[in-house]
Structures are given as structure tokens and as C-alpha cells.
Amino acid sequence: MQLRRQLKLIILILASATLTLSCEKDNIHINTGNSQNQDGNTGSDGNNIPVTAQCTVYFAANLYDMKDGMHLTRSLNPISADRFITVYTYKGFKEITDYALHSASIGNLLSPDNKLLILEKGEYNLYAPGINTPGMPVPIFAGKSDIPVRNKIDYIWWGKQKVSIDKPATEFTMDMIHCCTQLSVKLDFIQQMNIKDVTMFITPSNTEFSGWNLENGTIIPATDLIGFSEMGITRIKESFYSQMIMIPLRMNGDIDLQVRYVTTGNQTFTLETKIPVYNGELKGGYSYQYVLNISNNQINLQQVNIINWIPVDANDNPIIPIQI
Prior knowledge:
Elements: H1 2-26, E1 54-63, E2 66-67, E3 70-71, E4 77-78, E5 84-91, E6 94-105, E7 108-110, E8 117-120, E9 122-131, E10 155-165, E11 169-178, E12 181-189, E13 195-202, E14 229-230, E15 232-236, E16 239-246, E17 249-250, E18 254-263, E19 268-276, E20 281-282, E21 287-295, E22 298-307
């Protein structure tokens, strides 16, 4: 009997020792401090979270006007109020984030949600499409595929590739360009006529097969035209200035122009003419001014000039006077 009790006691002691060793073995792999994970990164909170330097990125924006293919410093101005821009950040072909910005006042570019753009240190490609039309949001890009566009919208763009972001606070000044073309008309009446009202119409670019590219900001030029569309117009003394922003155009041919005017005696006249596509192409970023006059109820083309981009108001009317 005594022998049985001793054997039972020995068995219980051995079982207890085995259980203790097993529990100690299970605890060997628990991380209790800063240790390295399989990638060699050092955790800072005991949970193998890699320590990654982060950078806050800020943006300012200017808008370039182009003349004769050159950026003109005197035409570089802060972005106007109530404009929207979206900054897309890429690492190689992978989109990291899209970051919305809004200019609450001239040159004051902030996130409408008061969010910060925080990126890990690294090399990035940045693409920033925007709309230079008050209150109009930026279309959404799905990857780098071209998106549809339409006339009478001032699409603007900035991009920078392979930029190193490695400081706690980094700021980029985006010098944005116009992606569309602008066709403007300066009209004078040779005879002294009492003109009460003038409206102008042109046959603008056909946007059906065009698209806006995120990576380089270009808009595929149209190769034909669509039906008459009304231009914005402003009167300065006895001269009439009109304009239309439209997608670039590449074609050998003419654009139809129609002028309707009403005299103070309520006589209405409608005249039509054709104006040439300048050297077969109206390029993105350029503003082309057609100088016309009306004499003896005939429209006469005097000259075509490449001028600085004419700003417009919310109703597409050109803002005059301007150095042109």
C-alpha cells in the first residue's frame, strides 16, 4: 500500500514538471520588446510594426499662359479662387492616393476636408489635373486611362515624375498649364452704327473621340467639327470680344463663324463667314485671336494672332481689358 502511494506521488510530480516545461516552451517566442521581424525592420511598440519615416506634403499652384510655345513669366499668376485640383500620387504604376484640393481664395490651396497628405519617404510620380472654372469639380481618373472631355471647360494640369519625398514637410508649387485651346474674336464695325447687341457662334471641335491623359496632361485633338455653339462675349466701347475654350483641333479646313447683331433701331442682321484653322492646328495651351471687322454687311478677316490666354468669368465671357 505504501509503495503504491509513493509511485502515485512520483507520477504526479513528473506530470507537473512536464506541464511546466511545456508552458515555458510555448512562451519562448513571445516578443517582449524591440525586436526585428523577418524583413529586418525594427518594431517600436512591441508588435513588430516597422518604423517608417513619414512626410507631410503641401501644395501651391500657379497658372501659366503660353505664347509662341514659351512660358511667359509675366503671365504666371496664383490660381484663382474656387478652383478644384486633384493630386494623384503614384509609385511606378501603382496609385497610392488621390488628394483633393480647393482654392478658397486666390492662391490659397487647401484640402476641403482639412486633411493632410502624408506619404512614406520614397520616390513618387505626381499628377495634378484641375478645372479652371469656378466651383466645378475635377473628373475622376480610373488609373491612367484617358477620360472624356467637353468644350467650354478650362482643363488644367501639372505633373512631376521621379520626385524624392524625404523631408518631414515638403511643398510643391504646381505651375499648371491649360490643356485646351482658346479661340477668340475681336470684332469692330467700320461704319458708325448704333449697335445694341451682338452674339457670335462658331462650329467648335468635335469631342466624341477625344480624351484627357492623366500622365502628360494632353487632350487628344479633334479632327472635325460639330454644329454652331454660342461664344461668350464682352463689349468694350465699340469693340466686341468673344471667346470659346474648346479641345485642341487638328484639321485642314475652316471653322464656320456666325455674327448676329441688333441695332438700336431694332434691325437684326445675321452674317456668316469662314475662318481658317491656324496652320492646320489649334494647339492645347494656346489662345488664337481672330481680328475681324464688319463693313457693308460683310465680315472681313484682318489677321490671326497668338496671344496670352484670356481669362473668363463664370458665364464664359472674356474678362477685358487685357494686354493682348
